[in-house]
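Predict the 3D structure for this chain.
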Amino acid sequence: MDAIRLIDIRKNILSDNEDQAEVIRRNLAEQKLFLLNVMASPGAGKTSLIVQTIRRLKDRLRLAVIEGDIESTVDSEKIVREGVPAVQIRTAGACHLDAPMITAALAELDLAHLDLVFIENIGNLICPAEFDTGADLKVMLLSVPEGDDKILKYPLMFSICDALVVNKVDYLEGSDFDLVLLRRRAHELNPRMQVFEVSCRTGAGLDGWSGWLLQKAREKQG
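Done. Predicted structure below.
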């Protein structure tokens, strides 16, 4: 009997994706363009965070957004209403964005006249953590109603992100969400992770978050 030959498709796919992500990084480094990958569960407030950040930074940086959704253009329409260009990626079932998708989306933007591009990834805490998009920084958004135990259930997402934004802190009162415990667990898993506490509804904490992001974009511009 012939020996079984194993082809690891997943390994090949991830390797090819990483190669393309490096191409994105090199190209954007030459243009001094900052790329931010925002990831979260559905309903955590990704679009709300991006919209609120746009309102605080659009007079200081030239912005655009790459929107990822399985279907619809609802979120892109919200971005365009803020006066910022958007490119919609409809994955038709795929649960994440990858480097080839981002390459195609970037080709639709006038990169020479941009400073920062947001990627709003698909609402999912599993697949997006595995696929490099070529972004300079990865941010995970967690909302208070989701609970503080998500870090125990989805450790990979927390371990690969540069920042954790805890949204909907206006719901903390009366909840059992433990911010101190969440911070401790986050830093035990990922000591370099920055943690921001915000409310996209009340505006709490958004100036601090936006200021940090502005600094990161400026650092890349030199």
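The two ends are 62 Å apart (CA to CA).
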